[in-house]
Design a protein that fits this description.
Among the domains are: about 170 residues, 3-Layer(aba) Sandwich (Rossmann fold), CATH 3.40.50.11380; about 170 residues, Rossmann fold (3-Layer(aba) Sandwich). It is built from 26 helices and 13 strands. Strands 3-2-1-4-5-6-7 form a seven-stranded parallel sheet, covered by helices on one side. Helix 1 runs parallel beside helix 3, helix 6 runs antiparallel to helix 7 and helix 8 packs antiparallel against helix 9.
Length: about 625
């Protein structure tokens, strides 16, 4: 449908809606009747037609039309409520079981529609309605598990997935959802068994395929007992498995003009931690030298997506494209280099990259490790995150080094003001961490417990999405108590959105970085809120983000070489609360004046690195 016809139809639907709201059902129906014949099937047109039928009392025909709409457009939300209302009134107070099953299916589909737009709370409500009508509905149990997981209610998610499997042991989605819940609960070996069972039942299941392969090797980055050689070998082995599917490198096709054509591929061009680092680069890369393309592999679009689209670049949405289709789209843009921001994380197009959609492919930031992917030529990094030359031996990609830090941070626009360190008022020091629960390893918790012992009366605030889950909270309570910490000294808070999490830093005196997988955005957030961060200098990329960030800030004194020094640094900071307050009140200005906030300088550094790669000289002169 072209724009003119689309506008014409929109106006017609609007007019019919006004007439119906005024009770002029016959006129509304007369207006819509020729449109139903003139236009191709359209969800809003059909919905208005069905609604006019219902409002005028033709409930039987209206129900038929609403059913057609939800069958044809599963994720179109408007018809569900009127359809459910009509059916419930028709069935009366004591409907037969087979009718309840039909109504349960409609509630389940309505839940799927809410889940598709990321409204997990409403989705869960619909699934629970479906299960109230039919408690043996395996699909609804599985879908409820799927929506509970991103809400952080992982223990209940596990329970629901197991109920689905008990009803239908061949339910692939339930096995996958169970694996996801177990992964978030830290029970990785059990999760891998679930993904394997899902793939046994349906070898081509895309989500289980991800979770059982690239998702599996991503999980290795959180395990503190693994050596770098183990992690490298797992990625290298994965790369060998897909090597036969990797196409030969294509020659670079000349684009229009003399600009270097650079593509960025991500599933996180939206409100996400990655955006705090990526958006400044997209905004400041020199358009006299570069032409930019963004390939958005995500379902959710928001104000960040809109801002990126408003920049002078070409925006492509790839989430609905096959690997082949996505690769052909990128090839048609005749890039000189494609920068992958995903690696093996959510939103990745790992298998699409096997088609080599650009003559050069580089990874940056989104996956702080080798990918093992034979088609990825470079990983862009800095010398502190990946010290040379030793880091090269743990990468299948060549390391392309920026001159400075690889993090250029743009703070949240509505970040609250920095306030005096809370210890001055409370009389005790509060430590804190707002990192993902998966990063809170046993070694990390043990170290933090020792710190609490060393700093009497101190408190610890941990905030993460999974602390919504009672099972997760119980697990961490058990850990702290096992290390001799009275749990009244530890507060586990669920994560909150809309920048409200930054207000937690107003209650924190000293932030603690977990290990072996440290924070990036969380570290920068803490510093922006005036909170010093203590980090452990790890021996792998994911454990050295804090080293790079604190060095760029000019605060290397907060970097520990081992766990004992980590405790000592935090303890020393805690002992002098007035000095701590002085640090706090000056930290935002220090960050603002330094390289972490020099967006234009970082973009120039990154651009020079891209030019070196495209020209075949990855090392600086």
């Amino acid at each position: 449908m072209d724009n003119a016809m689309d506008n014409e139809l929109s106006n017609l639907i609007s007019q019919a809606g006004i007439l119906a709201s005024q009770g002029s059902f016959a006129q509304a129906k007369a207006l819509l009747t020729p449109a139903m014949q003139k236009y191709a099937p359209h969800p809003y047109l059909w919905h208005n037609w069905a609604q006019v039928l219902a409002d005028s009392g033709n409930l039987i025909e209206a129900e038929q039309w609403f059913c057609q709409i939800v069958d044809r457009w599963f994720f179109f939300l408007p018809p569900y409520e009127p359809l459910i209302h009509i059916i419930r009134n028709r069935l009366g107070p004591k409907p037969p079981l087979e009718s309840l099953a039909i109504l349960a299916r409609i509630f389940n589909n309505q839940g799927n529609a809410f889940e598709a737009i990321g409204d997990y709370s409403k989705a869960c409500g619909c699934y629970r309605q479906a299960l109230g009508l039919n408690g043996k509905y395996a699909n609804a149990w599985s879908n409820l598990s799927n929506s509970l997981n991103p809400m952080g209610l992982v223990s209940e998610s596990e329970d629901c997935a197991r109920k689905a499997i008990a009803l239908d042991p061949t339910h692939v989605g339930a096995w996958n959802n169970l694996g996801c819940a177990l992964t978030n609960l830290g029970r990785i070996p059990e999760a891998e068994g679930c993904f394997a069972e899902a793939l046994r039942l349906e070898p081509g299941h895309p989500v289980a395929k991800h979770n059982g392969s690239v998702g599996k090797i991503f999980n290795l980055l959180f395990i503190d007992t693994l050596e770098n050689t183990d992690i490298f070998k797992a990625h290298e082995d994965w790369g060998r498995q897909i090597a036969c599917k990797v196409q030969k490198r294509q020659q670079s096709l000349p684009g229009e003009g003399n600009k270097v054509r650079v593509g960025f591929l991500s599933g996180d061009f939206r409100v996400h931690a990655m955006a705090l680092f990526v958006v400044p680069l997209l905004q400041h890369l020199d358009r006299d030298r570069f032409e930019l393309f963004c390939y958005a592999n995500q379902r959710t679009m928001d104000e960040v997506s809109g801002f990126i689209r408003s920049l002078p670049l070409t925006w492509r949405e790839t989430i609905h494209l096959s690997d082949e289709g996505c690769a052909e789209l990128i090839k048609a843009d005749r890039l000189d280099i494609l920068v992958d921001l995903c690696g093996h994380t959510e939103g990745h197009r790992t298998y699409m990259l096997s088609h080599r959609p650009a003559p050069l492919i580089a990874g940056w930031l989104g996956y702080m490790c080798t990918t093992g992917h034979p088609a990825i030529d470079y990983r862009i990094t800095d010398y502190l995150t990946d010290p040379a030359p030793e880091s090269a031996s743990f990468h299948t990609e060549k390391l392309a080094y920026l001159e400075g830090c690889q993090f250029s941070f743009r703070p949240e626009r509505h970040a609250p003001p920095v306030k005096a360190t809370p210890a001055l008022e409370k009389g005790f020091v509060t430590f804190g961490s707002l990192n993902n629960v998966r990063k809170l390893t046993l070694a990390t918790i043990k170290t933090w417990a020792h710190l609490l012992h060393r700093v009497p009366k101190s408190r610890l605030i941990l905030q993460a999405k999974l602390f919504e889950d009672l099972g997760t909270k119980g697990y961490f309570r058990g850990l702290f108590e096992a290390f001799g910490i009275d749990f009244c000294r530890v507060e586990l808070r669920p994560f909150v959105f809309d920048n409200q999490h930054l207000r937690t830093y107003q209650e924190v005196d000293i932030a603690l970085d977990p290990f072996p997988y440290g924070g990036g955005a969380t570290t920068c957030d803490a510093l922006w809120m005036g909170v010093p961060v203590v980090t452990l200098s790890g021996n792998r990329s994911v454990g050295r983000m804090g080293v790079s960030i604190l060095s760029a800030l000019g605060c290397p004194q907060w970097i520990a070489k081992d766990q004992e020094e980590y405790i000592q640094i935090a303890q020393d900071l805690a002992l002098n609360q007035h000095r701590l307050n002085s640090i706090r009140l000056g930290l935002r200005a220090k960050l603002e004046a330094g390289p972490l906030r020099d967006e234009a300088g970082f973009a120039k550094d990154f651009g020079n690195t891209l030019l070196r790669l495209v020209n075949g000289v990855p090392e600086k002169n």
